[in-house]
Amino acid sequence: MIWKAVIFCALAPLLLAGCLPQKADTRPEIVSHSAWTMIGDAPVLPAGSLRNQALWNDPSVMKNGNGYVMYLTTSTIKPFEPPILPFRAVSSDGANWQLSPEQPLLTASGGPYLSVETPSVVQFNNEWHMFFTGIYPADAETPMAIGHAVSNDGVSWSIRQWELFKHEPKDPWKSYLIGEPGAVVHNGQLLVYMSAVGARPGGGPPAQSLAVAVSGDGQTFSTPERVLTQSALFPAEQGFAGYSSPAALSYGGRVHVFFSVAHWLPGGNPEWTQIAIHHASSAHGLGNFVENDQALLSYKDRDWTEGEVLAPAPVIEGNEVLLWFGGHVRNSALRPLILRGVSGPEFGIGMARGPLQTLSSP
Length: 362
Prior knowledge:
Number of domains: 1
Distance between the termini: 33 Å
Radius of gyration: 19 Å
Low-confidence stretches: 2-12, 14-19
Largest sheet: 5 strands, antiparallel
Number of strands: 22
CATH superfamily: Glycosyl hydrolase domain, family 43
CATH class: Mainly Beta
Structural class: mainly beta
CATH architecture: 5 Propeller
Strand content: over 45%
Shape: globular
């Protein structure tokens, strides 16, 4: 997301000069589910892989025959700076990937955005649908909105609507921004989950919740309604801001939503980070979600995720869930990556797995 890109861009000269101080990490400890594990000790798509100076993030993964297709993003001209654009990669095993095609699928040309990020792709009504976060210039009234593109083959895309969902300044829970879509087809309808940020009543960290909009035809959508707010497992008193970066599956008659847990640390570097991946499910996906009683993954699970763990992308394989996710080291540990020419395991897309039976249900 753009918040991270701006922070990293500002940090790059300091990192190269070696003058960025190491600060104590006072974020809460989170213990991940014992049945879930990150695969390996490094990203499967590290920085600089597949494309020179690539900073891969925001995966959205689908099964494709005997393999997988991933939609993912990176900065395309200068590392950490716009335009950040979506790409497509293919794999036979989920760990070894190649770009197909090698060029971005969309650009920001002709629209109001600097970047096109967080693609979420589904097939519905004989079309491929991509919902994405568009990042506005810095002087816009909101940092981002959600756009919609369509395709006949999942490779060649056209914009259907640049600004499908936007913030509502008069609606407190989504008064600041709406972004980070996660789409799923369930019971013959297209559901688009998204993250919304507004002010928290009484003060404290920003209030970040998940909302959903519904479509029966892939062209017209309901007004987004908030469906999931942070539980007592992640209290605001400990700096937790709420939930972000949703991705969803339809399985066993329920909608399963995977999402990042956001934390706010005033004066931190950066202040807003995503430090766990969590899960909840609902029979119809429109409310009454049941959350797991423990996070699936934590930023403490690997050295390379100590900065953030975010943007889950789940796929069911047999009796387990494969989960791709974004991550990176703490900002103060990025200097080796930059000295290598923006290449290495400090930033990228990782892979995890866990048993289906661990997902929440009534």
